[in-house]
């Protein structure tokens, strides 16, 4: 009876974990969000007194009274005209010539303007399904255009990323739904790798710490052998070069050891401060 | 006889494309081959991957390169070396006329067209643009493979999607 209850309340997934890993599932981020779409800036600032895109070209508006100007300003004309100005500003950043409408850079700039406006809309009305679909399609199209641009003109691609403030990430090998098993497997692999690296570095440190005493004894032994050979008038097998080499090695080791000890001290001090 | 064939095969140059890899001291090259299916009597594409020794880092992701087998394996993984970069990605020179090309047009022609229409200040200038790589790791994340984000780490990896 008790066992039956315990199985109900404690979920047993059938995997015995040897290592204790804490897995946090990454939170869901909608694809229209700037961090997913790669937009590093929001809409450019446009004053509400700016005139509408087409009206600004007219000669009469220049010396019109304030009240008329107010009527033809974007604050009065509505969001659509405002968005048109946003797109125009982005296109003006990269435009090749005045009649340039259909080159890759202008197309990408136009899409970017549209995307940023729609992202604003989505922030206000997250349940607007039509806008959600549109912005997703536009983001995909922009990514495709960037991909092609990268293939035939890399320098322009990089310049465009800088001008429009977009981030570009390559396609992953496979788009798949994240599973618990896969994540745990990867985390375990990383954990094992950490253990392996730690053991290796520990062993390396041990060996390096033994290097100094060994070099000292070697130096003494070499000098002793040389003196003995000279005293007993035997052929000298230990040259000055050998001794110099060992001395040099010892010097290098002491410098390295000092640096290491200082780093250790610093670490210990930091830990003490934390406590 | 067999040994001669193997040695001759080692001298072959292979043409492949550099693909993103996490290895820092080697380049991963994809060589496209065709394999005959004897039942269907049809050729199917088959990719082979080689890790190549590239100490000067002369090839970047997407470049078309020539590789050759090393006389001895450098490591268990690295068997080839990068001989030459034939076509850098997005910076192609026409081999016949020696002019720079973007897509199907000469760069001169594109420049000339912009001049005729009236160049603006915002025009992209190819001659003044820095060579590829100044955005690598800042806004352009293509040198390493991207993957699905599987855990919330303290540090955010830009290659996780």
TrEMBL record, chain A:
GO terms for molecular function: RNA binding; structural constituent of ribosome. SMART domains: Ribosomal_S15 (SM01387). Keywords: Mitochondrion, Ribonucleoprotein, Ribosomal protein, Transit peptide. It is found in: Mitochondrion. InterPro entries: Ribosomal_uS15, uS15_NS1_RNA-bd_sf, uS15_ribosomal. One of its GO terms (biological process) is mitochondrial translation. One of its GO terms (cellular component) is mitochondrial small ribosomal subunit. Belongs to the universal ribosomal protein uS15 family. PANTHER family: 28S RIBOSOMAL PROTEIN S15, MITOCHONDRIAL (PTHR46685), SMALL RIBOSOMAL SUBUNIT PROTEIN US15M (PTHR46685:SF1). This is Small ribosomal subunit protein uS15m. It comes from Galleria mellonella. The gene is LOC113515082.
TrEMBL record, chain B:
Gene3D superfamilies: Nucleic acid-binding proteins (2.40.50.140). GO terms for molecular function: structural constituent of ribosome. One of its GO terms (cellular component) is mitochondrial small ribosomal subunit. InterPro entries: NA-bd_OB-fold, Ribosomal_uS17, Ribosomal_uS17m_metazoa. It holds the Pfam family Ribosomal_S17. Keywords: Ribonucleoprotein, Ribosomal protein. One of its GO terms (biological process) is mitochondrial translation. The keyword Ribonucleoprotein applies. Belongs to the universal ribosomal protein uS17 family. This is 28S ribosomal protein S17, mitochondrial. It comes from Galleria mellonella. The lineage of its organism: Eukaryota, Metazoa, Ecdysozoa, Arthropoda, Hexapoda.
